[in-house]
Amino acid sequence: MADLPQPTLIPAGDGPRIDRRSLVVFITVTVLLVVFEYWGLPERFRDSWLHLRVAEALGAGYRPFHELLPYQFWGVSSLVLRVAVPLAVIRFVLGDRPYDWGFRIRGQWSQFRPYALGFLFMVPVLFVASSFGAFQAKYPFYAAAAEGGWHFWGWELFYGLQFLGLETFFRGFMLFGLYPRLGYYAIPVMVIPYVMIHFGKPYPETFAAIIAGFVLGYLALKSKSFLWGWFLHWGVALTMDVVVIGREVGFATMLRRVF
Which of 140, 143, 151, 163 minimizes the C-alpha distance to 234? Predict the structure, then answer.
């Protein structure tokens, strides 16, 4: 991690103090968590006037997918609130380079191996977890994804955008924003709100999010990017959906519907 800024931890006895960068990150993260909770989630869109207006604008041809719209809105709101806004703060408020906050693609192939191993480790775990009723009742969030076609891909692609927003926000903006001040302590600070967004999911998944948050945080700092964390997170979630659907309708039927 040669090009990461060196942490400036507070010496014992110096008293509480905070730098401008950390203060901006803390305020931005707190505000965006609240805004996303009240205006960025699928159920918020579903209950709003905007749902009807967007459905009308898309016309009768999109009518079979009206229940998909809230989940697609979720993906778009994630891009806006968890990618675009943090990028604007980094660039125009802090005057920094997004490249130094985990927004980097160059040189990332050398970091692929631990993420690939992580995915391979998760595949049998997902097969076991998908056999439990709590997971079958929860996934996929958009139940009609089991019908295949655009019901499946229209859900999974926007689901992927949601994970891009999630990784950008937690393993990018928050983690890299706090690292210069907190060092590796930025990882557990980031994990706290990250785990809390899992409340309402099956409790084994919420506890697993603690481990995932630490591992993905460490790997992001090591690779200086959250890129592979996005693909790993999305890949695990997509695999869970596929396995649950396969158990419900049969894997051969699922593959015919999807492809």
Answer: 163
